UniProtKB/TrEMBL annotation:
This is dTDP-4-dehydrorhamnose 3,5-epimerase. The active site is at 61 (proton acceptor), 131 (proton donor). It comes from the Bacteria. GO terms for cellular component: cytosol. It comes from Niabella ginsenosidivorans. GO terms for biological process: dTDP-rhamnose biosynthetic process; polysaccharide biosynthetic process.
């Protein structure tokens, strides 16, 4: 199975089989049947793509129910540190931070179920990130957690002086405050 468990229920690393030959490589970036066979039945209805330069941190973001989004994240160019935080109050892994490098080279994808906050930092000179979502963008239901929350203490692998982050993301609340409204 091309899915690797992470220890957090529903959070999976997808490692596609890559066919290499003299021309280059080929792989199925997404095949609904393969996901279904692994018990993943999310129906993706929106694709997002963003480009960011080194040091950019986007996140941590989520949409509240009933607009919660499952995300399947992959990198088209560069290397990112992808970060998922378990916000599910009744989960054994509530409050756990999971991080993984996703890159053009390793072709790994992260499947993030409902109930997680998501963000990433750009470790390469630039990165183009594509992620599929199972629910549409809904501005009113957007929420998030500040990237440097002291309880989560995430190592984004970017020196503080190099961090580039949106004004909007700098206003995000702490994990403790965000979880009250989650
Ligand atoms: C997320 C999103 C944004 N937008 C618009 C709103 C805004 O004007 C502009 C940029 O939005 P943001 O600053 O929120 O983009 P960004 O900070 O890249 O937001 C994304 O971050 C990553 C980590 C995620 O997990 C995503 O779900 C999403 O929240 O794009 C859409 O039209 N559709 C969308 O689905």
């Amino acid at each position: 199975m091309p899915f690797v468990p992470t220890g957090l229920e529903g959070l999976l690393v997808f490692e596609p089989r890559v066919f290499e030959d003299a021309r280059g490589y080929f792989f199925e970036a997404y095949n609904q049947s393969v996901f279904n066979q692994a018990g993943v039945h999310d129906r993706f209805i929106q694709d997002n793509q963003s480009y960011s330069t080194y040091g950019v941190i986007r996140g941590l973001h989520y949409q509240l129910q009933p607009h919660a989004q499952c995300k399947l994240v992959r990198v088209l160019e560069g290397t990112i540190l992808d970060v998922a935080v378990d916000m599910r109050k009744n989960a054994a892994t509530y409050g756990t931070v999971f991080t993984i490098e996703l890159s053009t080279a390793n072709k790994k994808q992260l499947l993030i179920p409902h109930g997680f906050a998501h963000g990433f930092s750009v470790l390469s000179q630039a990165a183009t990130v594509l992620y599929k979502c199972d629910a549409l963008y809904n501005k009113e239901s957007e929420g998030g957690v500040i990237y440097n929350d002291p309880d989560l203490a995430i190592d984004w692998k970017i020196p503080e002086k190099d961090v580039i982050i949106s004004d909007k993301d700098l206003l995000l609340p702490s994990f403790k405050n965000a979880i009250n409204n989650f």
